[in-house]
Design goal:
65% of the residues lie in helices and 0% in strands. The chain has 4 helices and no strands. It is elongated. It is mostly helical and 101 residues long. The two termini are 29 Å apart. Helix 2 (32-49) runs parallel beside helix 4 (84-100) and helix 3 runs antiparallel to helix 4 (84-100).
Length: 101
């Protein structure tokens, strides 16, 4: 429907209720690789359909968020509270982002 509305006028029945659960066909919290690929694909979509400056801002936010999470997990390590799954997930995402750029 996103692509259709860019070209044509889309009629919508207001009596219908639809909830879009982006990426709900897989559980990203169970698979850190899927999470990384999902975020990269959403960034690709954003870059394809929105301005360059907004896309750069989004990429910067994703990078900073992952680095911040990795930094906080490093601070928690001496207390035995670090989350290895979360660390793997964000390291993989950063590696994917570096490959794409």
């Amino acid at each position: 429907s996103y692509r259709i509305t860019k070209e044509k006028r889309l009629g919508v029945d207001s009596g219908l209720k639809i909830t879009h659960l982006g990426g709900s066909s897989f559980k990203t919290e169970d698979n850190w690789r899927l999470h990384g690929r999902y975020i990269v694909s959403m960034m690709y979509f954003f870059g394809k359909h929105y301005s360059r400056s907004r896309t750069i801002f989004l990429k910067l936010f994703v990078f900073l968020n992952s680095y911040l999470i990795l930094f906080l997990e490093t601070l928690k390590k001496p207390f035995g509270k670090s989350n290895n799954y979360r660390i793997k997930k964000h390291k993989y995402l950063l590696a994917l982002l570096k490959e794409v750029n």
